[in-house]
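TASK: fixed-backbone design
INPUT:
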């Protein structure tokens, strides 16, 4: 009986995986415990607050862009006199440029529904990852968050992808989010 137990023990230990499909140590947790409900609620509240602040910066940029265009003031990225974080500053500039172009007199070219970002072209995923559906899904979510002016947070999409392929999803998400920079 003992030799059989010793033969099966290595096989049993190789079957230890966490809920995400990642190997885990049979001798105790090697990663921290998940967030408590209170901490997770706090993180959700902070993400929502960040999104609201980015949206306010974008709206303020649109107001300033419309105002400058209607009064004939030349377009200026230095117009911003607020103390914004980098994500909020990007949203402000995007709102300013979009409103300035749409409100400016007809001397500016018509973009015929082109994206509001000058010279914007959606980056393509790397060729080796195009066949991975989890990478593509992460890439799509990262692109959406970046265009919407949100903070880079792949963790905000937990539950929308198969947790066994979390690393592939996150790699696609951050590849898309950082492609413009």
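OUTPUT:
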């Amino acid at each position: 009986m003992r030799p059989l137990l010793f033969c099966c023990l290595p096989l049993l230990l190789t079957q230890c995986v966490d809920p995400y499909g990642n190997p885990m140590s049979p001798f105790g947790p090697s990663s921290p415990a998940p967030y408590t409900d209170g901490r997770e609620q706090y993180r959700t509240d902070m993400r929502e607050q960040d999104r609201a602040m980015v949206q306010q910066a974008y709206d303020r940029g649109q107001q300033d862009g419309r105002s400058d265009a209607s009064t004939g003031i030349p377009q200026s990225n230095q117009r911003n006199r607020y103390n914004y974080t980098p994500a909020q500053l990007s949203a402000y500039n995007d709102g300013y440029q979009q409103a300035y172009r749409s409100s400016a007199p007809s001397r500016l070219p018509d973009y015929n529904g082109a994206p509001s970002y000058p010279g914007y072209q959606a980056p393509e995923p790397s060729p080796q990852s195009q066949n991975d559906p989890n990478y593509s899904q992460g890439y799509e979510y990262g692109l959406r968050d970046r265009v919407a002016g949100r903070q880079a947070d792949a963790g905000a999409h937990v539950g929308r992808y198969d947790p066994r392929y979390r690393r592939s999803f996150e790699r696609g998400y951050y590849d898309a989010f950082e492609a413009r920079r």
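COMMENT: The two ends are 62 Å apart (CA to CA).
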